[in-house]
Description:
The chain contains eleven helices and 14 strands. It is an alpha/beta fold. Helix 2 runs parallel beside helix 11. The protein has two domains: 161 residues, Rossmann fold (3-Layer(aba) Sandwich), CATH 3.40.50; 121 residues, 2-Layer Sandwich (Hypothetical Protein, Haloacid Dehalogenase-like Hydrolase, Chain: A, domain 2), CATH 3.30.1240.10.
Amino acid sequence: MEKQSGAAFAALRGVKALALDLDGTVLAPGAVLRERTLKALACCIGKGIRVIFCTGRSLDSTEQFRRAAGAEGPVVCFNGAIVADMPDGEILGAFFLERETAEFCVDISRRENIYYQIYFPARNSAAFSGRLPPGGSREILMADSSRDEAGAYREHTGVQAIFGDLTQALLSPDFSGCIKSMFIAPPETIKKIRPEIEERFGDSVYVTQSSPVFLEVLKAGVSKGAGLRIAMDRLALKKEEVLACGDEENDLPMFSIAGFSAAPANAREQVLAAAAFRFKDCAEEGLAEFLENTLL
């Protein structure tokens, strides 16, 4: 862990909750939750510190890590598009992207030959209202056709897309909105198409990157920060009682909501610059060491 002042660490003693990104922060490369990190999280929970996972992953994909860590309470998924109280499944917030935006992104994907996928609510919007049904999938991931990117995403998240005409799916009488949509493409391709989306929709959508190759398009007002605020309200947490940890652009909104922020050495430069604390690379289980030295 990088050297930082004892006085700064002392301020963390009042932390009552951790807002934690998964990929690149909690998880080691290969999306693995390693033993030392798991133990550190369990120790935090044992001390009464809440663990709030705030991730771009789907709720289904997040569940394995939440259960392994023994965390209960609010979970912020899909970069804030869904906030659920787990394991009970009470939905605290659900914010869906409009058809027009998704149709525009489908057109870009076909014109530029870029892989694009959309998460839809399972069955209909009732799947994300009230209380989640026990078992089964809460969301459906769909893309126009199978490509290498779909396989790589499945390996990374465990989520298998189904394939079909996205335009027809968006025009379905049962359409109730998109939870999240995303392009998977090389960084130079993302850099090319992102301005077109932002220029077309401006502040009416939320566009962010959760990795160098993931460009995500969500409903305006959605972010990990907005989702974290819902979670904090649920738990009656004050700003100065929350420590947010993340490594990517989509984690920055959390930093402005939490009283404290920290990032691993592998984080994007702008995230490292915004973080009050830094710790070792996720491959070295830097988060575990950081928690051991500050909270445990």
